[in-house]
Amino acid sequence: MLLTKLIFSRDAFKFLALKKALLRSLSLILILSLAWLWVLIGAKPALAQDNTINYNNTNLQNRDFSHINLAGGVFVAAEMRGANFQGADLTNAIMTKGVLLGANLEGANLSGALVDRVTLDNANLKNANFTGATLTRSRFFDADITGADFTDALIDRYQVNLLCDRATGTNPLTEIATRESLGCK
After folding, report:
1. Nearest Cα to 65, choosing from 98, 29, 32?
2. 116-164 residue pLDDT tens
3. Cα dihedral value 28, 33, 36, 42, nearest 10
4. For 135-141, which contacts have Cβ atoms below 8 Å and span 24 or more sequence positions?
5. Which residues, in sequence order, are bridge partners of residue 141?
6. Domain locations in the chain?
7. Residue 122: exposed, middle, or buried by beta-carbon count in 10 A (0-12, 13-18, 19+)?
8. How far apart are CA 132 and CA 154, in angstroms?
9. pTM of the predicted model, to two decimals?
């Protein structure tokens, strides 16, 4: 009788283990099915943007983008020599590795923009708004920064020192002096 109970308890244990494994498998299949259904119904990826402006590796020399809304636009490695961005909205734009030699960005809004490794030599940056922008490893040789606002912008110390040598004016929109926004002494 003891042997019968022992055999029965082993069978019961196997049955319970099999039942538990089957329930886990069915739960996993149900969760995966619901996730797949959610994706099919129309979930969008978290980083997707509708109508993204994308000028990656594009030749935009001497193009006129004046007074255009280009917020969130992507200009990675774009050739933009002599381009006109006067009064353009470039808020949160990505302009890494771009070339803006002699470009006109007068009065442009580049707040929150990523302007990393960009050449802005001889550019017109009068009254431009670079508030909170990232301007690391970018060059500003002979750029006109009169009235530009660099408040909370991330700029290499070497470039800040060079910019402070010629910083003048006050931004007409933010009413912040260029020297003050750069932290010049």
Report:
1. 98
2. 999 999 999 999 999 999 999 999 999 999 999 999 999 999 999 999 9
3. -130
4. 135/159
5. none
6. 1-43, 51-185
7. middle
8. 7
9. 0.73
**Residue pLDDT, tens place only, 63-87:** 999 999 999 999 999 999 999 999 9
Q: Report the residue count for the chain.
A: 185
- How many angstroms from the chain centroid is the CA of residue 42? 24
In which element (H, E) is residue 135 found? strand 134-135
- 3-state class (DSSP) for residue 119: strand
Quickly tell me which residue has 């060079």 as its tokens: 162
pLDDT, tens digit, 9 for 90 and up, residues 86-110: 999 999 999 999 999 999 999 999 9
Q: Please state which of the four CATH numbers 2.40.420.20, 2.160.20.80, 2.30.42.10, 2.40.160.10 is assigned to the domain occupying 51-185.
A: 2.160.20.80
